[in-house]
Design goal:
This protein is an alpha+beta fold and 415 residues long. The chain has four domains: 40 residues, no CATH class; 82 residues, conserved putative lor/sdh protein from methanococcus maripaludis s2 fold (Beta Barrel), CATH 2.40.420; 86 residues, Efflux pump adaptor protein, beta barrel domain (Elongation Factor Tu (Ef-tu), domain 3, Beta Barrel), CATH 2.40.30.170; 106 residues, RNA polymerase II/Efflux pump adaptor protein, barrel-sandwich hybrid domain (OB fold (Dihydrolipoamide Acetyltransferase, E2P), Beta Barrel). Helices cover 17% and strands 38% of the residues. It has six helices and 27 strands. A six-stranded antiparallel β-barrel has the order 7-16-19-18-17-20. The chain has a four-stranded antiparallel sheet with strand order 4-24-23-22, covered by helices on one side. A four-stranded antiparallel sheet has the order 6-21-26-25, with no helix packed on it. Strand 17 and strand 18 form a beta hairpin. It is rod-shaped. The two termini are 77 Å apart.
């Protein structure tokens, strides 16, 4: 039976059926306008021009897994993150635009993107490092025998003992000195001043301290400086040759503090610069010195260079082997600064993510300098006032790499 045969033929019946259909159609239209599940975006000519000019997203994605594409804006990626829209590149529509990636401003908060401005400010040149106390290797005395002889007596000494200046080390018997002394005494009794002076000069040339040995060829060897005995070879009864070492004494009036400074901060230290040391043994004190040398070699395992600082050591309280925290003072200089967390170091180059107009982002190469207080100095690649991404920049950099966006190179023109 055709649909036409379902309509009643009488005028009264036809009127009733049309009324029922009409009322059902009105209800259907009302349901379409009031049902939130079927309400569609406004796309008519009466819509807001600003909203209609916004391009339609190609798809929705998660920057952490950009290879996954979704059609629903409320989708969650495999990482459990809310997706964001991906808009077509302006160059694909025939218009020109700066290279970069575009992020919906409403998605910035969910991605944790935070923007900072490159500003000119003062960067303190302070640097903290660790160091170790060592002997002053320039304050060393080698005690030797000036003539062949025998050790008659050794005093109660041992390596590691701290001795005063002039402390006796050993008594030495030199037979040659005995004959020279007898000759000197005989000449001196003659009263001839010239001969007496010549005999005394001979005693000095033989190495007799003061030209007058104690007893017949006996002399006492003493330490010329105060310090600690490093080596002691004087033993009773030992036969000595000319120039044989008896002991080595290291002075303690000053000590060296060898600080390990990272090689990237090599330009922050120089000879003559002041330094302050703090030691756990003396928590309430600060020891001030100056840099006397920067060693020419770098430690390969720690990538540090050794900075030698000389400290005064009154009372000998600073002992070699003690650890110290070193504060290397410096002057504050004006520099272009960005937050250190905004800098991306890939190993091959150093980048920041520029935040440009209309929600576009673009990587840019930079050359960095010093770092202090959570800020990094930019030597090249940025201009004052440019905005960089301080948080969430790694996601943007990954997206830029996947889409093939080249980083802005370091040139004289940053535009």
């Amino acid at each position: 039976m055709s649909p036409r045969n379902l309509v009643p033929r009488t005028p009264a019946s036809r009127a009733v059926v049309l009324a029922i259909l009409a009322s059902g159609g009105i209800g259907f239209v009302a349901a379409r306008l009031t049902s939130p599940a079927t309400t569609a975006p406004v796309t008519s000519a009466t819509a807001d021009p600003a909203s209609s000019a916004k391009p339609k997203p190609l798809y929705y994605y998660d920057p952490m897994v950009p290879q996954e594409h979704y059609d629903n804006p409320d989708s969650l990626s495999s990482m459990g993150m809310k997706t964001i829209p991906k808009y077509p590149d302006a160059s694909a529509t025939g218009t020109t635009s700066k290279p970069g990636i575009s992020i919906d401003p409403s998605a910035m908060q969910s991605l944790g993107i935070r923007i900072a401005t490159a500003t000119t400010g003062m960067l303190a040149g302070a640097l903290d490092a660790t160091g170790t106390i060592d002997f002053n290797q320039r304050d060393v005395a080698i005690i030797q025998s000036r003539a062949a002889g025998f050790v008659q007596r050794v005093y109660n000494r041992a390596p590691g003992d701290v001795i005063a200046r002039g402390a006796p080390i050993a008594d030495i018997l030199v037979p040659e000195w005995g004959g020279a002394q007898a000759e000197y005494e005989a000449v001196r009794r003659t009263g001839d001043r010239a001969l007496t002076a010549a005999a005394a000069q001979r005693l000095r040339l033989l190495g007799i301290p003061g030209g007058t040995p104690r007893g017949r060829g006996m002399t006492t060897v003493r330490s010329p400086i105060a310090g600690v005995i490093q080596t002691l070879d004087a033993r009773q009864g030992v036969t000595l040759a000319v120039g044989q070492a008896l002991a080595q004494v290291n002075g303690l009036s000053t000590v060296w503090l060898n600080a390990a400074v990272p090689e990237v901060r090599a330009n922050a230290v120089k000879v003559g610069q002041t330094a302050t040391a703090e030691l756990a043994a003396f928590p309430a004190e600060h020891f001030t010195g100056r840099i006397i040398a920067i060693l020419p070699t770098t430690q390969a395992d720690s990538r540090t260079l050794t900075v030698r600082i000389e400290l005064r050591n009154p009372g000998g309280r600073l002992r070699p082997g003690m650890f110290a925290t070193v504060h290397l003072g410096g002057t504050s200089d004006t520099a272009l600064l960005v937050p250190s967390e905004a800098v991306i170091r890939t190993g091959m180059r150093t980048l920041v993510m520029l935040a440009e107009d209309k929600g576009r982002y673009r990587p840019a190469e930079v050359k960095t300098g010093r770092e202090a207080g959570g800020r990094t100095e930019i030597l090249a690649g940025l201009a004052p006032g440019e905005k960089v991404v301080a948080s969430g920049q790694f996601l943007l950099d990954s997206e830029a790499s996947l889409t093939g966006i080249a980083a802005r190179r370091i040139t004289g023109d940053t535009k």
